[in-house]
Amino acid sequence: MIDGFYTVQFQTPMGMGGGTLTLRNGKIQGGDSTMLYRGAYSSANSQLSASISVTTHLHVPGNVTVFGVPEVELNITAEDAGTGNFNGTATSPQAPGISMTFVMRKVPD
């Protein structure tokens, strides 16, 4: 079952970061020290697709997303790497030409 609590590590050419995510009943919620992640996902076979909004909850001067802009909409695809882990990529229309790679690791209950 895909639903659960995950850690996520991500990287673009602009920088790297990490946070936590909860996937439950088609919805994603999560965040890190300055950003909130909210959206929806679907899964079939070993594939995950998602659309996520990344917004700022703590305004720190000069702090932006790893896409180089303050807020983004992400289009995500990922594949189950086994043992509850997903490897994926994300793009954003707010940052054309930049791609993010990420690893999601499911936290055991």
Blueprint of the fold:
Layout: E1 4-12, E2 15-24, E3 27-31, E4 35-44, E5 47-56, E6 72-82, E7 85-91, E8 99-106
Antiparallel strand pairs: 1-2, 1-8, 2-3, 3-4, 4-5, 5-6, 6-7, 7-8
Description:
- Helices cover 0% and strands 64% of the residues.
- It has 109 residues and is mainly beta.
- Strands 1-2-3-4-5-6-7-8 form an eight-stranded antiparallel beta barrel.
- Strand 2 and strand 3 form a beta hairpin.
- It starts with a strand and ends with a strand.
What's the quick description here?
With 109 residues, this protein is mainly β.
Basic shape: globular
What fraction of residues sit in β-strands? over 45%
Q: Supply Rg.
A: 13 Å
Arithmetic mean pLDDT? 94
**Considering DSSP H and I runs of 4 or more, what fraction of the residues is helical?**
under 10%
Question: What tags apply to this protein structure?
Answer:
globular, eight-stranded antiparallel barrel, mainly beta, 0% helix, 109 residues
